[in-house]
Batch of 2 targets.
Target 1
Amino acid sequence: MDNLREQLSQLKNIQPDQGFSTRSRLAILSTSQETPTPLTWKQVAMGIFEYGGALALAAVLFVVIAGNTPIGKMLAPFDAGSLNSAHLQAEAEAIDIQIKLLDFDSYEEISASAARSSTPATSSTKNISKKSQTSGSTNETSSLIVSEEETSTTILPDDALLLLSR
Amino acid sequence: MKAFLLLLTFLTGSVISLTTTVYAAECEFSGPIEELATIQSKPTTREQVLRELTLRKTILNELTSCLVKETQDKEKSLKATTLASPETKAYARWLENQFVETVSFYEFKKTQINDLGIEGSKDLAKEMLDRRRTNDRILFERTNLFITWNQNQELFTLGYKRLNDITATLEVFDLPPNHELGKLLIDAKTALEKANKLNLEAWESLKSSNQEGTLPLIKSSLETLAESYKVFFTISEESKKELPL
């Protein structure tokens, strides 16, 4: 152990060979030094041209891809979503709902019209017009329909007006 | 998600449409009406005449409130409609002016009720009933048709977008002339154009004085639009078989 310590302590005394030192110094000193040179107008113009060209190309590519151009369609990723059955189904169902609503509204209109023009005699309705006609002087039919299925009876405004007009 | 939103939009629209016939609390006058009918069926006494007059005034007051509320509710549903073109906006304004005029009519009549006798109440009821038949009913029907027609425009826009998207997709494959998919595409376009023609006819009918033809035209336009979607489905199925999708 003491021997190793002694050897290590001698390392600081190691010196390069005098000839090697001289050769190395000469080699370093003989290497040419690059000194910064001021930019010329030509270099500035080339730089602007290079950066400007890159920006212009990027802009053209953006317009082509983002814009609705034929080239853009070719470059854009292929989209088969337009043939997606689920999307088609949703749109077709929205149309069906509208058609059914129109049918429902038409049915409601017909039902209301039929209810007004006929004398209701079903168990679920009672006809107030019979009461009013017993004392009335007119033969015109007035059908006031009061639904017993609902918690409160409902009389349509037009029917009420008809009764009041007598 | 987009498809779900589309369905939700129309289901919401349907709920609005179905609730338009429900009368408000102001329209509850069945009690006085029944009592009036009972009084009219008995021999007339002075007390009964006075009671009949009171009942008539009560019912007329409630009726006018009911009709004002009904008119305002319909106007609200019109105002809640999203309008895209200046033409539809102008049409909606025209309808709104009629609603304002209708409300003014009933509010003015309401101020006259307390001064009426029995004969006067009969005359007012006749006048209001006549207005309901010749004005209000047409205005309400026209408004319902307009709201429905306006809702449909989104469906037509979607239909044309779908046609354009499918056309663009098929163009990528550069199909040969007389290819089956090309023929189907022409069929879809023909159906869509026919549907749109009916849709525009419905709009013209809506603007005319006679509304009878509007509902059948709206319905036909939607049915024809649905036909074009059947062709879209066929194109979708055939494309899966014939194209490398």
Target 2
Amino acid sequence: MINFQYSRANDVADAVRQISASPSAKFIAGGTNLVDLMRMDVERPTKLIDVSKLRLDKVEETANGGLRIGALVRNSDLAYHPLVQRRYPVLSSALLAGASQQLRNMASVGGNLMQRTRCAYFYDIATPCNKREPRSGCGAIAGINRMNAILGTSDACIAVNPSDMSVALAVLEARVNVIGPRGERSIGLADFHRLPGDAPERDTNLEADELITAVELPPQGFATNYTYLKIRDRLSYAFALVAVAVGLELDGNTIREARFALGGVAHKPWRNTQAEAQLRGQQTSETTFTQAADLVLRDAKGFGHNTFKIDLARRTVVRALSQAARATPQSQSDKKIL
Amino acid sequence: MPEANAASSVSVTLTVNGTKHVLTLDPRSSLLDVLRDRLDLTGTKKGCDHGQCGACTVLADGRRIVSCLTLAVITDGASVTTVEGLAKDGTLHPLQQAFIDHDAFQCGYCTPGQLCSAAGLIAEGKAQTPDEIRELMSGNICRCGAYPKIVAAIQQAMRQS
């Protein structure tokens, strides 16, 4: 780990002032990802600005019936928050499917949004990686790519976003509130993370001098017909091969509203609004769900080791939609897939 | 552990197992390295140093965390409990006794982390069934494979708490 200057931010304005004065600085809260990357010499910030003591740790109801989650709320606190468990159980479930309780006790909501890919080539500084070192090449495309992307890839990068929380936030159409030297703005979850394109070094559309202050959830929480189904190499404490978050609104067997997003398959949580539109007005059935899954995976592309994920993703989408339709969401403790 | 140098060193106050320490630290120091190398509390173990094995689990303000991925400077003001702080007045913590009763280890290297993690688990109160215990203890790897006995030991301690 290279040496760095360390300073504590007194308040949000101070944090913004400090990052504006040091363009190569980074914010740190839980540090579960950043400290690891610094130890591997993947991240080499000259300064860390500690925002962990800022008062961004509240979960509050908003005037329109939604929820505002402070950026420093710990992942474990959010997963077990009564309002989240009652009104947004898909978010609680996704959080509990990620990492371990120790890491959830450390990791913040803002940090989870900013966590970087676990692509092995990104972590290994002896290999080329366009995300770590722009224009150095990609080790994964012709390498060991079992965990890599099948959707939205580019010739420069086939890394996946590792977050479970973000997949649920995509289904909930959350918004990310940020502040910077040019003021505050709100970014829709769909526009927060980026596809790699020819600039895979940029994971998100957050500017380097902006700080996440909160995540806002709209009122619609899909509290009855939802699931978070995560398929992985170990039953616990492993990143997703494929994960699917679902929220449905049903009228009898008729689908009124359908949202679903895939994790573990792309550089961002993967939604296909065309496939969701195709479900609306249809009867819940495996045939309907399979048609939607086929549409999502139509343009999927494998790279050898990960080609099996196309079929796995198709079946996981169908299973997850079925779980949500039956109101039998995936248990994150007994792991039985019904 | 890097030596603190005047240019970038940071003053940190930590209460560890009830004893207050004022330390001058290189900001790169992990809480794990400070506990082991500065405070000589070597019960907390370094396994992977990447937050993947749980051997370094301690309680910070009552919550279990991995001390390897925790920069010590960020824990300024915190109250930390390590495995050395679990026993009280010479009496083993109920979890320590339960691990002995159930022979819940073989080599013992993961045990300090298992004990601190289980203490956090019991305090959280979210695990009731064996499935829930297994899932919420999944951050602690035991390469000897003592998992069934670890679950039994935790169940015993939960009944006593």
